[in-house]
UniProtKB/TrEMBL annotation:
Belongs to the SUA5 family. GO terms for molecular function: ATP binding; double-stranded RNA binding; L-threonylcarbamoyladenylate synthase; tRNA binding. Signal peptide: none annotated. ATP binds at residues 66, 70, 125, 151, 159, 203, 242. It comes from Polycladospora coralii. Its main location: cytoplasm. Its EC number is 2.7.7.87. This is Threonylcarbamoyl-AMP synthase. L-threonine binds at residues 43, 75, 129, 149, 189. Keywords: ATP-binding, Cytoplasm, Nucleotide-binding, Nucleotidyltransferase, Transferase, tRNA processing. It catalyses: L-threonine + hydrogencarbonate + ATP = L-threonylcarbamoyladenylate + diphosphate + H2O. Required for the formation of a threonylcarbamoyl group on adenosine at position 37 (t(6)A37) in tRNAs that read codons beginning with adenine.
């Protein structure tokens, strides 16, 4: 299969102007015809297919190598579309929509029956969000049908925050790639279950727990986020994910302890890597040392996390040791992704 790659660098146009661009109109037409289109969002790049076609959705799972029991998030271009696809939208959900849409927040709600069953893995609920990226909004509005879109990468690998990441993973497997430059936030959307009396955080992301509680009050946390022996309930979180090829370990302790682990691995003849922040780069010795941002500015760590993990693969690192972060604010999302990448291995 030939994958077309269209570069769209004038993202400061209005949504209506973007909708008229030939690249967007072609991509929307191809989506409606059942094809796969990768596109930028404010979080990471997504791989989209229309939610009404089981055949198109099946192509997402095939292209990514994603297990079919892992439900997908659907993306809408206008707030009012949620009432067409969700069976019940509570007052609390509406408050979150007013506060954070368009933006990196996904709501899990009971769905209506006109969604392809393989979008939801047969569940009675669906995860819905309205992205903030202008290219994504223009594409969704021009398509006119919600688009299911997990991250546009091979399943298990670090999520793509640039079109080049998508190209490396999925060239020849998808129909169109809309290249809109780098993603801004760098980690996926926050997912919150709104089907019960008390909202439940299923996946930390671009909206923090404190921000959510500032709008709806108490928010519980899915036990699967805390206890590695339990399976998380969020779309995209059931399996090992976000992982580089090398064996990865999160190190909770001082720099000397981390360095001792690196020295031991090097003595065994393994090519070693350290994931750190800009403040600590000069403290370590390893074959590859990659800073993923500034510890004093957590948003920079989130933004560069996945690109940093991919660099270890590019440089053939066999064993990776990652510094840990406090489980608060944006770092909550960073640690969640690191634990999934390390398959829960923390020392």
């Amino acid at each position: 299969m030939e994958t077309k790659r269209y570069i769209i660098d004038d993202i400061n146009l209005s949504i209506e102007q973007l909708r008229r661009k030939i690249e967007i109109t072609e991509a929307a037409s191809r989506l409606r015809a059942g094809d796969l289109v990768a596109f930028p969002t404010e979080t990471v790049y997504g791989l989209g297919a229309v939610v009404t076609s089981e055949e198109a959705i099946a192509r997402i799972f095939e292209a990514k190598g994603r297990p079919s029991d892992n439900p997908l998030i659907i993306h809408i271009g206008k707030k009012e579309q949620i009432y067409e696809w969700a069976q019940l939208v509570s007052k609390q959900a509406e408050r979150l929509i007013d506060a954070f849409w368009p933006g990196p927040l996904t709501l899990v709600l009971p769905h209506r029956d006109h969604i392809a069953k393989n979008v939801t893995a047969g569940l009675p609920t669906v995860a819905i969000r309205m992205p903030a990226h202008p290219i994504a909004l223009a594409l969704l509005q021009e398509t006119g049908i919600p688009v299911a879109a997990p991250s546009a990468n091979r399943s298990g690998k670090p999520s793509p925050t640039s079109a080049s990441h998508v190209w490396d993973d999925l060239q020849g497997r998808i129909d169109i790639l809309l290249d809109g430059g780098r993603s801004g936030i760098g980690v996926e959307s926050t997912v919150i279950d709104m089907t019960g009396e008390v909202p439940v955080l299923l996946r930390p992301g671009g909206i923090t727990l404190a921000q959510l509680e500032g709008v709806v009050g108490k928010v519980e946390t899915d036990p699967g986020l805390i206890n590695d022996s339990q399976t998380p309930r969020s779309p995209g979180m059931k399996y090992r994910h976000y992982a580089p090829s090398g064996e990865m370990t999160i190190v909770s302790g001082n720099g000397e302890f981390l360095q001792d682990l690196v020295d031991q691995a090097r003595a065994e003849g393994k090519k070693t890597g350290i994931l750190t922040t800009s403040e600590n780069v000069d403290k370590y010795r390893a074959d590859v040392i990659i800073p993923c941002g500034d510890r004093k500015e957590p948003v920079t760590v989130a933004k560069h996390l996945y690109a940093s993990l991919r660099q270890f693969d590019d440089r053939g690192v066999e064993v990776i040791f990652a510094e840990s972060f406090p489980e608060t604010g944006v770092f909550h999302s960073v640690m969640n992704r690191l634990r999934k990448a390390a398959n829960g291995k923390i020392v």
